[in-house]
Amino acid sequence: MALLEVEDLAVTFHRRGTEPVRAVDGVSFTVAEGQVVGLVGESGCGKSVTSLALMGLLAKRGVTVTGSARFEEADLLQMSPSSMRDMRGARMAMIFQDPLSSLNPVVPIGLQVTEVLQRHRELRGDKARAEAADLLDRVGIPDPTRRLKEYPHQLSGGMRQRALIAMAVACRPRLLIADEPTTALDVTIQAQILELLKDLVAEEGTALIMITHDLGVVAGLCDEINVMYAGRVVEAASRRPLFARPVHPYSVGLLASIPRLDAPRGEKLTPIPGSVRDNIAWADGCAFAPRCTHAVEACVEGPPELTRTYTGHAYRCVNPVSREEAEAVAAPAVLPTPSLTEATPSEEESS
Amino acid sequence: MVRYIVRRLLQLIPTLFGLSLLLFAWLHSLPGGPEAALLDVRATADTRAQVRRSLGLDEPLWIQYGRFMKRLAQLDLGDSFSTGTPVVEEFGRRFPATVELTVAAMILAIGLGIPLGYLAARRHGRLLDILTVSGSLLGICIPIFFLGFLLKALLAVKLGWFPSLGRQTPGLDATRVTGFYVLDGVLTREFDASWDALKHLVLPGIALASIPFAIIVRMTRASVLEVLGEDYVRTAEAKGLRESTVRRRHVLRNAMLPVATSIGLLTGGLLSGAVLTETVFAFGGIGSFLAEAISNRDYPVLMGFIMIIAVLYVLINLAVDLSYSLLDPRVRVR
Questions:
Q1: Rounded to a whole number, what is the distance in Å from the CA of A89 to chain B's nearest CA?
Q2: Which residues of chain B does A51 touch, with a Cβ-Cβ cutoff of 8 Å?
Q3: Which residues of chain A does B245 touch, with a Cβ-Cβ cutoff of 8 Å?
Q4: Chain A residue at shortest CA distance from B252
Q5: What is the pLDDT of residue B255?
Q6: Per the domain annotation, does B1 fall within a domain?
Q7: In this predicted structure, what is the pLDDT of residue A332?
Q8: Which of A106, A108, A168 is closest, CB to CB, to B254?
Q9: Contacts of A60 in chain B (CB under 8 A)
């Protein structure tokens, strides 16, 4: 049985005087024990909102969350706020995007680590401090005892992200959600942080949901990948099939847009035309249709169904990309079990 | 740290020098003179000239100023024209009243303002928030003398809960130690005297607190609203911390930074005299005495009081800056 089963998750934001916004619109995916699952898509596709909804961190007012998210026998979306509080930080934890703003500037790093230990593991005083130093050491922060007394502004960007990771893994959660954990970091540090995450989940058998817009990160880390567009999963597959033979025109577009080192000098990048704002409601047809090079009449005649192949590859498209076409863009981009330190820098993507 | 404090204190010297020049020039350019207050309107020109001479006002201004500075260097601020008592003594007698009143007002303003501001931010856009915001607007708008008379009429005259005038019930034989009546009562174990003085503080305290309260409520509310949207508060929530821990450690601690600064400045403002409140409640602090001194053209009192207040203001600012560096590790004093 899967550790987390998200079924038909939808999040709608209401604001007086404006149309409600459906940020997440029927997302379903599963995460097995110890599995690394990627949620990929460009800014505004609903990947962060999905994670915040799972963590119960969305505002209480003006937000409607529907669907279900079964985690360890319980539905996260039905849980009382106080049981969610007990769950967060202990059974499931989250790592955020910008490590500087995600750390409290006026509280020492040590206290920010020990407060989790005290809350969920009842560790106090010297015991908590020793455990905190141990955690910092595990995430690769040198001289941890000294660092405990320091404030976030005294640490480098990579250190801060390591500290945030230490806080997230402090109680050995079963599920870790990492929301673009490397976006604010420079490329070499990115690779180190990804390596660290990979080791941590492997050691503890923690499941990881990796939220990113960076296909390089996904290629090096994820077992299963969900490509999201305008609040829905448009393609879901394991890493190899997705990179070897993408089916949805959006995934193909994403792969084609990666700048490549082997491209001839002066060759232009291949963008996806238009922007995320050029979409139509899923109820009327495929939201990607206005930007899609493969769009046909049928695309705007109704919401496209999710098609599942017998290999587990799923896509939401009425006119999928043909094998030849997909392989033309995908083949060179496939990274045969890439070593992260090599793969990530070459996949440097502007966010 | 010590070097920083010393440097800041040394900066006082040019500040005070400039202030004394400006003040002196301003005072002596005012029409009329202290003799008008000391003498009857029917006094002859001769008598006036005599009084001016006896006060040393017939000499050229620069000599008068030189004399003032010479005395100041010996920490002597001269004698009051109207009472004949040394200015320092007059100040010492009245200042405790002002301090007591200021402390009472700030305790009220902070004690109510911060919790209310926090709650308003937490209930952003709901009834409590709207009431708090409009109530604090009223607090800023309502003239103090009107509020003072209103409080007196209602709580003192009509209901008789609190005394309406002065610092202590006349005839109450209390021992004086420091001049701070509430403290004196505690020190001499005359607790009824303390209680009496406290009751006298309530109404002027409320009147004086109205403006700082309104400012603190609004600043706290705005600041908490801002902090609630910060990423680190979300991180704290993601750690599953108890609501009280999130509130205390992650929201209030950060939200208090700007509020602390304004509390310091407000306190300085109140100390420099709450003329209206002191007048309405006949409280006898430095504010009402200063107002009197202006109409009497009592140059030594005005010069002396304003110089002392300037020093206090600088000291309070220094204290605010120092406390800021304790609250926010990113600001370290060098």
A1: 4
A2: none
A3: 115, 119
A4: A106
A5: 92
A6: no
A7: 53
A8: A106
A9: none
Tracing tokens 């192949």 back to the chain, one arrives at A309
Does a structural domain hold residue B191? yes
Q: How remote is the C-alpha of B167 from its chain's centroid?
A: 17
Q: Is residue B84 part of a domain?
A: no
Q: Is B254 on the interface with A (CB under 8 A)?
A: yes
pTM attached to this predicted model: 0.80
pLDDT computed for residue A330 by the predictor: 63
DSSP state of A88: B
For B179, the domain range is 93-275
The owner of tokens 């939220």 is A211
Residue A83, chain B, CB below 8 Å: the answer is: no
pLDDT tens-place string over residues B254-278 = 999 889 888 888 888 888 767 788 8
Highest mean pLDDT: which of A84-98, B53-67, B302-316? A84-98
Q: Torsions phi, psi of A65, nearest 5?
A: -115, 125
Residue B334's pLDDT is 57
Give the CA diameter of chain B: 85
Which residues of chain B neighbour A90 with C-beta distances below 8 Å? 240
What CATH number belongs to A31-63+78-91+175-346? 3.40.50.300
Structural domain count, chain B: 1
Cβ of A119 within 8 Å of Cβ of B241? The answer is yes
Question: SS3 for B194?
Answer: helix
Q: How many CB pairs under 8 A join A and B?
A: 82
B contacts of A57 (beta carbons < 8 Å): 234, 237-238
Q: Does B85 touch chain A (CB under 8 A)?
A: no
A339 pLDDT more than 70: no
Q: Looking at per-residue confidence, does B130 or B28 come out higher?
A: B130
Element (H, E) at A63: strand A63-71
Q: How do the domains of chain A map onto residue ranges?
A: 31-63+78-91+175-346, 98-172
Q: How many angstroms separate the most distant Cα atoms in chain A?
A: 68
Interface predicted TM-score of the whole assembly (ipTM), two decimals: 0.84
**pLDDT, tens digit (0-9, with 9 covering 90-100), for B96-145:** 888 888 999 999 999 999 999 999 998 888 888 899 889 888 888 888 88
Strand, helix or coil for residue B78:
coil
In this complex, is the C-beta atom of B226 within 8 Å of any C-beta atom belonging to chain A? no
Q: What pLDDT does residue A1 have? A: 65
Of A88, A102, A107, the CB nearest to B240: A88
The dihedral built from the CA positions of residue A190, A196, A200 and A201, taken in this order, carries a sign that is positive
Write the residue in B232, B240, B242 that is nearest to A103 by C-beta.
Answer: B232
Q: Does B232 touch chain A (CB under 8 A)?
A: yes
Residue B187 has pLDDT above 70, yes or no: yes
User: Are the CB atoms for A218 and A225 separated by under 8 Å?
Assistant: yes
Residues from chain B that touch A153, judged by Cβ atoms under 8 A, are 329-330
Residue A308 has phi, psi (to 5 degrees) of: -115, 130
Average pLDDT of the segment spanning A122-136: 90
Residue range A271-277: mean pLDDT, rounded: 79
Tell me whether residue B330 is in a domain.
Answer: no
Rg (CA), chain A: 21
Average pLDDT over residues A328-335: 58
pLDDT confidence of residue A347 = 40
φ, ψ (nearest 5 deg) of residue A304: -70, 140
